[in-house]
Task: inverse folding
């Protein structure tokens, strides 16, 4: 029997969930929101079983720190949903699931250099968002972030509302963007985060409704009306920011921003540069494993689950294996995981392409990997190679050093361009496109 949810597939561009499966090129995609990004190895094993039995065995790590099961058939939606519900990974309804978009520092509780272990705060916020029906009208991509600082900080993750720890008890609250760009409101206590979030969500909904074209994201609303209306509404819960650079908390944030600098996914602090992992003080060791395009197989997830006690799901399309066994690294390597900061596959970005999206006409992942093979050291000075299945550019709509845009089975190749930008290198077969990229990078490196 076909599940009722199969009759209400989500449109592309909205956010999928377990209760809002999205029909894509290879079947239904189910996004599982994992509170605080902490996934016990037993649950990871069960995810792998479900992906293998009911899906096509492919699992994605999303840039929002979620797991996605792919290729689920219509008649498998019900048993998969039931199994996930039994594991506690299904919300009461689709509306309460959709608002649970909370990013949490993935090294929380593992990293003594962090200012605060924010897992509890992130879980409390996750639960509040689900319970507070007044917030269920927030736009689908509206997100929250709880960062404890340290080596797994989220300074460069953009979101709608940020809570960045400034010491062991308090957060800096800011709106719309990365740590450097978000507009600061003030400081709040850790135990008040859920109440502050609830008030901010309500304020966003009220204030946007007063505009003729209501913005769908916090950055747009702040650009239109500033932060003063939010400060007025939250004056009882947020203390005003201390003078710039001088006060406790604000000076700390300025220092963090200086120290953090810029992060590229996956976080450079988390992929060892030559070391085999981390042991920080008495905290458990952990090992970071990234995956090309953030995609792994159910078999890989199951194998990794046998080598650690817990996973942390990062927004950098990497998993942190907590308390890895001595053979965790060799298991990860045997399954094609990225274990080195120098792995050139980290430079590759690609959408699902043919097979994963009904618009795609080329195997974008195979093309990108072929470029890494062919270009080799030429990629060392390149930040990103983007292979897009069409001009929409879902994986990276912005400019990349090298961009391939597919249409009708061929590629247009351009340097320093967005998907769909005009270029003289058009209509190339996948093999010719790979060769053209290598030629263009050679010309660039030699100045020819
Ligand atoms: S960019 Fe890729 S995923 Fe997005 S619509 Fe085009 S082919 Fe599909």
Result:
């Amino acid at each position: 029997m076909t599940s009722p949810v199969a009759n209400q597939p989500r449109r592309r561009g909205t956010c999928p969930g377990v209760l809002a499966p999205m029909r894509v090129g290879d079947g239904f995609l189910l996004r599982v929101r994992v509170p605080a990004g902490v996934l016990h190895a037993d649950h990871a094993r069960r995810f792998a079983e479900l992906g293998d039995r009911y899906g096509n065995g492919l699992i994605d790590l999303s840039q929002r720190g979620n797991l996605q099961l792919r290729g689920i058939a219509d008649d498998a939606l019900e048993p998969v949903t039931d199994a996930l519900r039994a594991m506690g990974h299904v919300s009461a309804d689709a509306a309460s699931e959709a608002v649970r978009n909370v990013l949490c520092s993935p090294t929380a509780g593992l990293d003594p250099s962090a200012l605060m272990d924010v897992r509890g705060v992130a879980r409390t916020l996750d639960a509040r968002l689900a319970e507070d029906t007044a917030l269920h009208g927030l736009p689908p991509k509206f997100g929250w972030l709880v960062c404890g600082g340290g080596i797994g900080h989220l300074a460069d993750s953009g979101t709608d509302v940020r809570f960045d720890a400034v010491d062991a008890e308090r957060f800096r609250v800011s709106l719309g963007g990365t740590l450097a760009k978000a507009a600061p409101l003030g400081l709040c206590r850790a135990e008040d985060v859920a109440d502050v979030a609830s008030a901010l969500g309500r304020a966003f909904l009220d204030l946007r409704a007063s505009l003729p074209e209501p913005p769908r994201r916090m950055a747009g609303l702040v650009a239109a009306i500033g932060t003063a209306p939010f400060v007025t509404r939250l004056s009882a819960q947020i203390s005003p920011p201390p003078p710039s650079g001088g006060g406790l908390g604000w000076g700390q944030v300025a220092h963090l921003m200086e120290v953090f600098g810029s992060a590229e996914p996956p976080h450079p602090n988390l992929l060892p540069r030559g070391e085999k992992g981390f042991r920080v003080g008495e905290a458990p060791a952990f090992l970071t494993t990234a995956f090309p395009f953030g995609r792994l197989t159910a078999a890989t997830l199951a194998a990794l689950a046998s080598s650690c006690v817990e996973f942390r799901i990062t927004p950098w399309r990497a998993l942190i294996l907590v308390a890895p066994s001595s053979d965790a690294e060799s298991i990860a390597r045997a399954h094609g995981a990225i274990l080195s900061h120098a792995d050139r596959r980290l430079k590759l970005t690609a959408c699902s392409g043919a097979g994963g999206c009904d618009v795609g006409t080329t195997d974008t992942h195979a093309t990108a990997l072929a470029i890494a093979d062919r270009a080799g050291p030429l990629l060392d000075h390149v930040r990103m190679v983007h292979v897009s299945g069409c001009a929409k550019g879902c994986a990276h709509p912005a400019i990349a050093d090298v961009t391939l845009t597919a249409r009708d089975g061929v590629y247009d190749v351009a340097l320093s361009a967005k998907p769909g930008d005009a270029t003289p290198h058009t209509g190339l077969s996948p093999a010719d496109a790979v060769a053209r990229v290598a030629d263009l990078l050679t010309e660039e490196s030699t100045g020819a």
Summary: The radius of gyration is 22 Å. Confidence is low (pLDDT under 50) at residues 1-7, 245-251, 259-265, 273-280.
